[in-house]
């Protein structure tokens, strides 16, 4: 499915949290009322009693704010415009981890490990041609958008992760697919 930034994707059952918020609201109301009553005889109270009354009201308000902030955490909204690539949660299930994975088809990227001997020949903005092993009838244009400054060592060979952004999206593309990348480092 296509989603837009800010779109509601999932919501946790809020019944218990709603009750906690209402309870916190009532606690604030009680604390404010108690402080109003205490202020009628404010001059008769010891300084520590006055401070205690103020702190009770402050504490009640802090608990209400904490409960309300929990309310905002019960919704999952799309962080970007994109396509739902995977859904790991279903209605009524308990889960931990990633609920949904969203990809941005306008910024599909390919990560490749380039050998240390090839990296000096590369530059950000350089053009490339990408073919997917699973999509045999099309060649995709891409550009290098990032070359990691730090090396990655695999089996005693030094590589640099290079990120290419594809110029176009194809519905057949999936995260994790194998690709071949052709980079033109010089022409005669």
Structure report:
Strand 7 and strand 8 form a beta hairpin. Strands 6, 7, 8, 9, 10 and 11 form a six-stranded antiparallel sheet that branches. This protein has two helices and eleven strands, in the order E-E-H-H-E-E-E-E-E-E-E-E-E. It is of the alpha+beta class and 188 residues long. The radius of gyration is 29 Å and the shape is elongated.
How would you concisely characterize the structure shown here?
The protein has helices at 15-40, 47-72, and strands at 2-3, 8-11, 75-77, 82-87, 100-103, 109-115, 127-132, 135-147, 152-154, 157-166, 179-183.
Mean pLDDT over all positions: 88
Major sheet, described briefly?
6 strands, antiparallel
Q: How does the overall form come out from the CA principal axes?
A: elongated
Low-confidence stretches: none
Distance N to C terminus = 46 Å
Helical region count?
2
Note the run of SSEs as H and E.
EEHHEEEEEEEEE
Output the radius of gyration: 29 Å
Strand content: 25-35%
Total beta-strand segments: 11
Question: Which range best describes the helical content: under 10%, 10-25%, 25-40%, 40-55%, 55-70% or over 70%?
Answer: 25-40%
Task: Give the class from helix and strand content and strand pairing.
Answer: alpha+beta
